[in-house]
Amino acid sequence: MRVGNNMTMFTHYTEKKNVSSKDEFKNTLNNTMPDDTVESSSNIQESFGNKTADYDSIKTVETDQYIISGKEGGYLRIENKTNGEGFNWKLKENCIQVDEKSGKKFLINDFGAGFFNMVEVDEELEESIKEALGASDLEEKQLKNFTVNQDSKTGIYYITSNGYESQGGQIIMDNNARDKLNSLADVYMKQYSSILKTKEEAWFYASFEVRGMTKRTNDGFMMIGPNNISYKNTLHEKNWTATFMPSDWKKAKKMFDEIALTDKSFGDWNEWDKKLKNNNVKANIVEQD
């Protein structure tokens, strides 16, 4: 997915009707497996705890928040009635993963190279899955190849794929996170009304601030991506975008993390050019106002 005119970001497999590119900006649509990964199968059996689940006879279960049903190819379909998002769980291959530190549980489809979708398994969803499968227990394992992070300012949790942190991962969306993101997006809309035209754009930048990839001052905000860094000014002066090699991301991110919001050189490209060169990061300016 191409974001704006300067940033290659994340691809997520979504299954929402009438989804626009700006809706994708929210990065909260952690939905379904791509079609080419679906395997044909019938009457596949898998053991869950002390109960065997017959995929062809999965019970459809509806709760206040979820609809659980079987899907051809050995999948369990999970639909969130609140936000319209969906997730397909490959029962034979995946099990619930538990983050030891936070205690949060997940179902994750890992497509490799940092691309994934996931759903948090809360108590309501877990009990719904058990009922749908006719199982007393669900297999669990420790979270692997992913890290659960928490934003210190908002308390919002997000999950990243190990080794692909530059892609930003995904926010673990619940009502609390949604409310806080909405409030932060309102701040962006008010503070940067000359830059942002829609609430969806504000959500986009707010979501990346939570994940530590956007910084803002009264005059503008800066964002870092897998291979670029950019600055936007409220007066539309001295805006710039620079690209660097993805292999230099960790060095660029360290500089990004360390720069103080009060630093006079915060949005000054000439100063950033010097900083990058001093840290052996070769960057090329690709857009400048």
Question: What do these coordinates show?
Answer:
This protein is an alpha+beta fold. It is 22% helix and 30% strand. The protein is built from six helices and 20 strands. The strands form six sheets. Strands 16-17-18-19-20 form a five-stranded antiparallel beta sheet. Helix 3 (175-191) crosses helix 4 (199-210). The model is unreliable at 1-53 (pLDDT under 50).
**Percent range for β-strand residues:** 25-35%
Largest sheet: 5 strands, antiparallel
Structural class: alpha+beta
- Run of helices and strands: EEHEEEEEEEEEHEEEEHHEEEEHHE
Q: Calculate the mean pLDDT score and round it.
A: 83
Which segments are poorly predicted (pLDDT under 50) over 5 or more consecutive residues?
1-53
Number of discrete helical segments: 6
Main sheet: strand order: 16-17-18-19-20
Distance between the termini: 25 Å
Q: Please give the share of residues in helix.
A: 10-25%
Quantity of strands, as a count: 20
| Overall body shape | elongated
SSE arrangement:
Elements: E1 2-3, E2 7-8, H1 21-25, E3 45-48, E4 51-54, E5 61-62, E6 66-71, E7 75-80, E8 86-90, E9 96-98, E10 105-112, E11 115-120, H2 123-133, E12 140-142, E13 146-150, E14 157-161, E15 170-171, H3 175-191, H4 199-210, E16 214-216, E17 220-224, E18 228-233, E19 240-244, H5 249-258, H6 269-278, E20 283-288
Parallel strand pairs: 9-12
Antiparallel strand pairs: 1-2, 3-4, 5-6, 6-7, 7-8, 9-10, 10-11, 13-14, 14-15, 16-17, 17-18, 18-19, 19-20
